[in-house]
User: Fold these one by one.
Assistant:
Number 1:
Amino acid sequence: MTRKLQESGLTKAQLRVVYAQILRSRRLDERMLQLQRTGKTSFHTSGQGQEIGQAGMAMAFEPGKDYYLPYYRDMTAFMLFGITAKEILMDSFGRYDGPSGHGLQMPNHYAAKRVKAVSQSSTVASQYPVATGIAYGAKLENSDRVTLVTTGDGSTGEGEFHEALNFAGVAKLPVVFVIENNGYAISTPHNEEYAAKSLALRGQGYGIPGVDVDGLDFTATYLAFKEAVARARKGDGATLINLHVLRMQDHTSDDNQRIYRSKAELAEVKAADPLKTMTQQVLDEGIYTQAELDDLEKQLKKDINVATDQAEAAPLPDLSVLSQNIFAPVDKESGIYGNN
Amino acid sequence: MTRKLQESGLTKAQLRVVYAQILRSRRLDERMLQLQRTGKTSFHTSGQGQEIGQAGMAMAFEPGKDYYLPYYRDMTAFMLFGITAKEILMDSFGRYDGPSGHGLQMPNHYAAKRVKAVSQSSTVASQYPVATGIAYGAKLENSDRVTLVTTGDGSTGEGEFHEALNFAGVAKLPVVFVIENNGYAISTPHNEEYAAKSLALRGQGYGIPGVDVDGLDFTATYLAFKEAVARARKGDGATLINLHVLRMQDHTSDDNQRIYRSKAELAEVKAADPLKTMTQQVLDEGIYTQAELDDLEKQLKKDINVATDQAEAAPLPDLSVLSQNIFAPVDKESGIYGNN
Amino acid sequence: MATIDYLQALNQALDEELAQDDTLTVFGEDVGAPKGGVFNVTQGLAEKYGDLRVFNTPLSEAEIAGLAIGLGVSGHHAVAEFQFADYILPATNQIISEAARMRYRSQGDWSAPVVFRAPYGGGVGGGFYHSQSTEKVFVGQPGLRVVTPSTVRDAKGLLKSAIRCADPVLFFEHKRLYHSIKADIDPDEEILTPIDKAQVLRQGTDITVMSYGITLQYVLQAAEELAKSGIQTEVVDIRSLYPLDEATIVAAAKKTGKVLLVNEDNKEGGVLGEISAIISEQALFDLDAPIKRLAGPDSPAMPYAKNLEQAFLVQPDQVKQAMQELAEF
Amino acid sequence: MATIDYLQALNQALDEELAQDDTLTVFGEDVGAPKGGVFNVTQGLAEKYGDLRVFNTPLSEAEIAGLAIGLGVSGHHAVAEFQFADYILPATNQIISEAARMRYRSQGDWSAPVVFRAPYGGGVGGGFYHSQSTEKVFVGQPGLRVVTPSTVRDAKGLLKSAIRCADPVLFFEHKRLYHSIKADIDPDEEILTPIDKAQVLRQGTDITVMSYGITLQYVLQAAEELAKSGIQTEVVDIRSLYPLDEATIVAAAKKTGKVLLVNEDNKEGGVLGEISAIISEQALFDLDAPIKRLAGPDSPAMPYAKNLEQAFLVQPDQVKQAMQELAEF
Ligand SMILES: Cc1ncc(C[n+]2csc(CCOP(=O)(O)OP(=O)(O)O)c2C)c(N)n1
Ligand SMILES: Cc1ncc(C[n+]2csc(CCOP(=O)(O)OP(=O)(O)O)c2C)c(N)n1
Ligand SMILES: [Mg+2]
Ligand SMILES: [Mg+2]
């Protein structure tokens, strides 16, 4: 049973914001798929089905204080850290003002200096070791900031996943490792990715708690993350969270999941859409009325239209970028080293 | 309590051979340290303290049928697979007839085509993925051969360790993964290597059994490996064995463990020498009489002297080796590819 | 005869070798049924040869490499796919420490006759991690062959030869050649391309241009155009990036005395440097012009925005212009 | 003034930088107390600066690299040690995909000001995996500096500059220089060596020899000896292997018109090729002789048996002979 939103301990006002962001992110995701299909952008990776889990996750952190190393499906969490639809769209259009990649990175490589969301590569799991370095920094600074890092279930096969968790266990690092487990790595189903009953069991092998969390249940997710964050802030070390979510869309816009997922399975996934569940919850728990939701939908549509237009109108990177920021400039005065 | 040797189910004759090989390997190891100290060879890695565990391990396999990917402390197991002191010494002296490296590899890089002991690099844990390929081959051949691969406790930190176990779980490979856990990685104690209560717990994260085995207890070790091998032969997949042993000597002849291990600890390790325990056992259980043991010692000394002289007298690699066997010769007839 | 493209040629090569060598396995991320690889190079093979021989692996490139090596070591053959050439990097240790050294360090007791396939190259909107030319990371490792086909015929013949080769072969496939070049290939002809030879694709007397990958297509096209204005170009398909075919390279350089080297990778530190060094070591006094290199800029390959990506990529008109300038030198 | 060796110079550099930069951390396998590294480069530092700043890591080179990168990204500085240059290979992906690309892909929003130290080179009885020169694997990655000091002064000054550098620096230390070269260094002098410049160590007019690592010592010695018979050698310490200091290299080549390049690595595919290519591209008509390279053979580095190891290694007399032949060319 999905737990009540109110059991999360968040206020109604907070829950309104969360829900609105989730809905915004769904509508934005749909728009981005559409932009890709109509040739306005060249690529999109959808996060549909992972939004509720990501929202529960994001709400447990302090954006601006905590570091965040997202992966390519994390649009909802990224927005909850404080990023706008327009910013995200600028990255999709390859515009220089996009915070993630300034037109240099592919779409969906979420990052933003402003909220300590760190630049990511496409090489899966390679953010995990980097996250441990950032977490180690908190120890050096005697800070209670926490580092959040996410990846997919398939990506846990990588050696870098293992090496990071091992060191985090040894050094008791303030980091929350998240597996957004949607059961697939592109076309490869989970039983061809790993044979563990649950990836949460890996925690013990590193001396850190590993927990299974229902990422379709906002409250359950939020509370699990709250505990992991508290643990980390207190200096008790890392947690591994195996967050069970759904991948509702193709792997990316280059993929066609109907080749490897049956009609029945896809229908099931559609039926289990956690946004539907949560929409029912916000109505049932009196967080929004139906009329308010209708307004919200209208507002979001307008917002996203405006954001799309503005993002598209933003300038492409200048060609001079090709030779900028490769190395730091060598300091002319000393003549010897970068401006570290 | 150390279990009785007879409880292993091995015959007295077998146990006599095992013990003699263990003793031979200890005396050979001592000789190799001495050869290094006197400048006759330039390097040695001792396996003292790991012999009993290795013997229990080796006895569970069928040399010549099963593949074996040893690591650099595996001299005892390697000898039990059928390799002579002279062969090992040739490798130590860098002689071309050494089966492990033909003078090209450093000492202790145990390998021998004859018994399917596969050539190893020094890069720790990199034999683990290779072992899975060999194990996969057994499936292709519909063979019940098993692959044995060993490494140290510190080496379990490597990503390649993880990747190999993960795939072995998924593909249910007939492989036995061994961690010879001596509590140190050079100077680094186990609590700075990993935080798991036991490395055996990692098994669950890969969907394979993980077991802790007392590598100072021959019978316990042998029976645990027998079970793992039976599992693999039956097609039930891999096992991870965390074999608890002692490192009695310096990491290698380039190291000095008195810098990082206290006198008290080193005294404790010396007192716990499993060879002493086993010697008492063979006497108590009537496998050898004291007189026989005295003879055995004499015989071993003679053998090792002869082996040392013969190995030293063997030829160095010819300089032509520098340009041989880099690539397979290109087939002149077809003019197109190697002699695959 | 049937007209097939570069990708179909690769698929045919795998199909034929799977049929004739029953120790052969083909695997990698999403390589098995039903997807058959993200580019479809292995499409239909799992269905035909079973999912014990053609299969998906978890995301773990070091394991993919090691799995192949272990198969090779124990008498099997393996074609391992890295989904993108960018993702070979996590497997660097396996490839260099294990595969490349296996034969030599054991003096032939053991060997690793495996093929590592990797789609490389940019211009596909792939940003930094789906566009790189990573061949430079792996050349210069004795024991490891690095090759790349740049024609449809070689896509088939070189892959078949690589599979039959007794040594590990790192096999780069340019993504933008997959569907952009086609040729008539007799499906019944057994095509086996020499694995250690460069290839003169066009004879010429005025300038010599050596290249591989998509830029080789630009060179061929420019050579065709320049021929009309009387400039005759000797075009060499480098093909074997390591070890290089010194004899063919030096002969082609001497023939015209004017050499241009072209590839898509960054200029400094790429494989063109070695080719240039071989020429200036062995044919310096035959040269009538500096050995020029036309390559990508020395910035990380490759930015996403279309304008930057195009600015990064060596363009056909740059190739033609460089050739013209060299002819006029 | 105090006479110190190359290794002590490295230790001093770390000590001074740990003292002046309290964001700096130093770590790696066995780097902490009490061992202070398998070569003792970090000896005494954990005791002095605490084991939060100077510490052991588990065996996991990708993690070591990533840990450093994460520290750099979040405003700390890190010197990560790879126990041997051979063992950087498991960290290739972190170094190339993360460290080298961080600044560019984020247009300066993030950077990775970290140093990766690695003892390289053979002649120490280390066989294939404790002897390699792995620099060629990492050059040609825009965003990643690759340097190596070949003098005691540079061991100190270049490491200090690398630590202060705002970009990732891969720092190679030749193992056989650790104790074989000594110099008088004023402990109170703040030595900072330019991180992007080659260095002319000796002026000459007859031949130009460029090198780095142990072979540079042979070059200097031979130059000294040849000077007695009237051959004046211009000796360049390449020092910055990527990006190369083209200006210094080209000027030195033009000065004598006769160039010899020397290193310990295999010949084909090593960094000498790029140096040669730069020269033949920019100074071809100033050359009076082919650009020669003297390097290791194209076989896996490095066999264990003493006779083979010595046969692999470029020897002082080979260097001298090559220089003499070039002078007489
Ligand atoms: C090192 C590496 N190997 C392969 C890829 C190609 N690739 C991109 S996403 C992906 C699947 C990831 O699956 P999962 O971790 O489950 O995440 P999901 O996409 O399902 O969210 C693959 C194979 C990559 N990006 N990096
Ligand atoms: C990839 C790699 N990193 C570092 C080393 C250097 N090294 C050799 S042995 C060793 C410690 C291994 O410890 P452990 O795995 O516990 O095995 P033990 O020596 O204790 O048997 C290290 C760090 C190496 N050989 N390979
Ligand atoms: Mg997934
Ligand atoms: Mg150990």
Number 2:
Amino acid sequence: METKYSKKHLLSLYEIMYKMRRFEEEVFEFYKKGMMPGLAHLYLGEEAVATGVCAALNEDDYIGSTHRGHGHLVARGADLGKMMAEILGKATGYSKGKGGSMHIMAMDKGILGANGIVGGEIPIATGAAYSAQYRGTDQIAVSFFGDSATNEGTFHESINMAAAWNLPIIYVIENNLYGISVDIRDVTNTANLADRALGYGIPGVVVDGMDVLAVQKAAEEAAERARSGNGPTLIECKTYRWQGHHVGDPAVYRERKDSNEKASWMERCPVACFRDQILSMKITEKEVAKIEEAVEAEVQTAVTFAEESPYPDPAEAYTDLFSDL
Amino acid sequence: METKYSKKHLLSLYEIMYKMRRFEEEVFEFYKKGMMPGLAHLYLGEEAVATGVCAALNEDDYIGSTHRGHGHLVARGADLGKMMAEILGKATGYSKGKGGSMHIMAMDKGILGANGIVGGEIPIATGAAYSAQYRGTDQIAVSFFGDSATNEGTFHESINMAAAWNLPIIYVIENNLYGISVDIRDVTNTANLADRALGYGIPGVVVDGMDVLAVQKAAEEAAERARSGNGPTLIECKTYRWQGHHVGDPAVYRERKDSNEKASWMERCPVACFRDQILSMKITEKEVAKIEEAVEAEVQTAVTFAEESPYPDPAEAYTDLFSDL
Amino acid sequence: MREILYRDAICEALDEEMERDDRVLLLGEDVAFIGGNFKTSVGLYDKYGDLRVKDTPISEAGFVGMGTGMALTGLRPVIELMFSDFMLVAADQIINNAAKITYMSGGQVTVPMVIRTPIGAGRSSAAQHSQSMQAFAAHFPGMKVVVPSNAQEAKGLLKTAIRDDNPVLFFEHKMEYSNKYMIDDVVEPIPFGMANIVRPGTDITIVATSSQVLKSVKAAEILEKDGISAEVIDLRTIVPMDRETIIQSVKKTGRLLVVDEAYERCGIGAEIGADVMDDVFYYLEAPIARIGTPNVSLPFSPALEFPLIPTVEKTVEKVKKMMK
Amino acid sequence: MREILYRDAICEALDEEMERDDRVLLLGEDVAFIGGNFKTSVGLYDKYGDLRVKDTPISEAGFVGMGTGMALTGLRPVIELMFSDFMLVAADQIINNAAKITYMSGGQVTVPMVIRTPIGAGRSSAAQHSQSMQAFAAHFPGMKVVVPSNAQEAKGLLKTAIRDDNPVLFFEHKMEYSNKYMIDDVVEPIPFGMANIVRPGTDITIVATSSQVLKSVKAAEILEKDGISAEVIDLRTIVPMDRETIIQSVKKTGRLLVVDEAYERCGIGAEIGADVMDDVFYYLEAPIARIGTPNVSLPFSPALEFPLIPTVEKTVEKVKKMMK
Ligand SMILES: Cc1ncc(C[n+]2csc(CCOP(=O)(O)OP(=O)(O)O)c2C)c(N)n1
Ligand SMILES: Cc1ncc(C[n+]2csc(CCOP(=O)(O)OP(=O)(O)O)c2C)c(N)n1
Ligand SMILES: [Mg+2]
Ligand SMILES: [Mg+2]
């Protein structure tokens, strides 16, 4: 297979996807061992989306994330230790344990916030795009959200404003077919959610969300459009989540229409398939293994760091509400 | 000119439009004389929209209305006296003076409510459509709203559900170009708001909102679609309001882009033009004049009724919050 | 009597009311095929079908508004909001619309709609999924506000809510769903506006809501050992409020503590204190007091979250202070 | 000193802050070309241009959320909501997002955003355009809540709000916009959390907000003639609240009346009473009292609306009762 991308770039894409995968497998382990408070929504299976999109970005660009946000953080190079510590509710986490999995914020990586409100982050990311336009910088914003978030009013209001004002933003639908148990096809009438773009006069693109290079390509075009003042793009990435909605969801609803649904998507695993793909492109098993080892070490360090970190002091509950009170 | 409609029907359309016109001229008079509490949003100039749409409906269909709702009420045959009394805050008004111009409700005419919240009535009308479907009746709902209401999240959420579930409803955009002072073309990126339909997989129709027969035709098609279980239609009626946003608005913003804007729309007055039109269709000046006299009498009776009606007793402020407390 | 999970008591109430009245229908996210995020409608989809037990898209303002439209046209919808925090997404439809329409129409119409939604912290759900929205609901006129304390109460009050002709906000405590309770074989509707003295006492009146009722009873048992006799009142409904029962109790005990899990500021404790003040002032032997959630956002980490939640211990301690 | 309309004082504060700091921008419906529905931003569009004074579409949740995104990325947006009732359309963005982000991020970021919006009844605007949303705002943690009482206060407090690094809800009273006031030639920012004793007195403390401050002063003048000396405190900010000034005053006077136009239930009166209760209880010579908007929707007809609004007369009457 041919690609315009360098070997180094391909390896780095693989590294990121593999890191997401391994990181979240460890999150799931913590849950199973009863060491994780609350719940987490895993990105397993959707790795190519965040990886491909973020590959098209600059360091100072902005990301609006979701309840299923670990992948976005990893793709932006967030610190795995601080992430895992946050997920375990430790004082050393990104948000000092106040946010948890659903609210990890990493401002140093341009992550404006994960958000527990479906659709809640879309206008916020749009505001960051307005801010970039206002300040006259070269920055753009990316707003990630799920298929079902496209049915919230904030989706509509945000895209309309971005379209009217040519804001530098990319809207990325992570269409994994479900909002919890509800099949998006039962609550919406269009085959492709990208068609929503038609109502706003902006481009709407459908992309194979299991193919990291396809995603990157679509994102690059959208980023170029945004940076050159031509406004937003809506990209729909067709993807699938390996697990239930959250770590505790058996996901019985999936067998409802097609008993083979999960299996057929898993065959197209973005991590495994991309591994095969790059091995067919002058990259050696050894090079890949080296990356996997390094990732493994990084993940284990994060796990240990998180485990060994202390819980916050109860008095901390009363700080950080305001910057000054 | 040819039309499939009977003389009687044409005259009744004219009667309704003329009634709206004369009723609201009297509302404006009350305002100018300082006899109207608060404000009112006049439908002057937009008469063909409500008249044409409602001509396609049955008596038991439902209407979701707006802050600019007098026209919808008149089109449904609401009692002018009770309307005017409500607008003046009298005890004999439709809502006992509790609602006022922006909240006239006439459940006996299927008016689910005027609504002071832009976009607020759209889901309510959609629920009435669901209710009709659930109860297995032949009823449909019509949701009227302005161009700028299409930028509220409720517009999006409602149409998506109606489209997904084939609800029997017609969404009617009264596009008079402005939301208060804001030109819809400055805050939205599509030439036709009817294009919004594309994102939901439903038909979107643009209609000359100054032409009552064109509106009726579009509404009939949509009603037919709704009643036969084929779901919603979005109809955009291009129209214009003669007055400012409300009775107290000088509307300076209109001369901003095109100093001839108002004049050119007024040339196409839906009432005057339709009058000319029917006079060219075997209807006589005398027949028209007779209707005008009857309307005048009805309007004057309403004015007198409203003027002479008492204000509500202050104790009434505490009733009707709950049906039982 | 029989044993039942709180969540199943909710489900039974829904089922019995739907059985009784085919104008009743249920809408919300994930209520149908999987029987609800907290499993409060298991089986109803199979029994009543897709039109009557409806999985909605994630469009809270939209489907609450649809509920209003249904209620105006002859149906009696029950709407589930997955977390009471999401009332804020639909706040305009709830407060500016559903709650005001009867009034704005001059009594022409009623809006018989129930919004059921879980409140409460304790699951490390963090700031956007842990709030208790009953004071918010009570602040605005036009809604009845129900805060059941256990399975029997939840079942009986939910039936009343569904039969009520007005908008009712029905708050289920999410930490209760998996709790087991004994309930009557047949649970009759429990009238609104009648508080329930669940434990008589003479030294102090504790007015509690939702899961704080049981906690208050436990506190009262502990206080008993110290010779303090606490009367515990289950408020049941915040709107309408049973002032009389509270006033009579405080006149007897001379002390009032309100325990409710909503944020403290402009909360239920403040309200009850202000509401009965004139009637009880000259009987008071100590300042009226309240326990609520402190005025900070709810944190994720259990190390931070638990200290913020009203507990048996906090109630015991506060009462002891008030007795000094 | 010079004479100025309340609305122009708001406009001056915006202008001066925009002049001082180019990170400040203004967004809202009709704020630009026509200078605001209540004419509080006349001239700013011409002076600062389309990107900085922005007419938005009717998308309150959308543009409040955008404000948050701006605030997170180096700007200091001022958002106008045309009526405070519309906070409910954007409630999730205000309360679940803007107000919680600093906390949820563990203090990584601040959200320097001001939401300006009018409150108050008196214009026959009916149930959806007449509410006073300050108690609602104060109930939820994470926002500062400002209720200026006149033009000078509005100008000084708005400057402080814009310079504050946190979300601030700034409530302007719509019946004030056309009122004339004398203000200082140069108005400095007025610090938050410092109540203002606008009229000293010895018999009763009246804590008032917004346009009720002037009404309370008028009431005090009337009461004076009956030999009753009322101390009137302009609260200025509900969050943060200046408890100390209130407590000291009540310790002196022995009586407390709170006058605020929000709905009474779970309102500001209830809160202040509960908040200071412990500190003043043994000094009280009468029950703490409150005047607010009764717990019904606001009606259209002036015949119904005016009787619901807190007035000078109601305050006089209530104080007289409290002095008995
Ligand atoms: C406003 C709001 N409504 C409902 C929920 C509950 N909820 C959390 S995630 C989710 C499904 C989201 O689906 P989608 O947008 O497709 O994202 P996915 O989980 O599939 O990644 C729901 C309903 C919520 N968190 N916020
Ligand atoms: C939620 C909400 N936002 C803002 C307003 C203030 N407002 C009343 S009417 C109006 C303009 C509506 O424009 P459009 O929908 O085009 O209807 P039109 O008035 O032109 O008929 C606005 C902004 C409101 N009433 N409700
Ligand atoms: Mg999904
Ligand atoms: Mg318009």
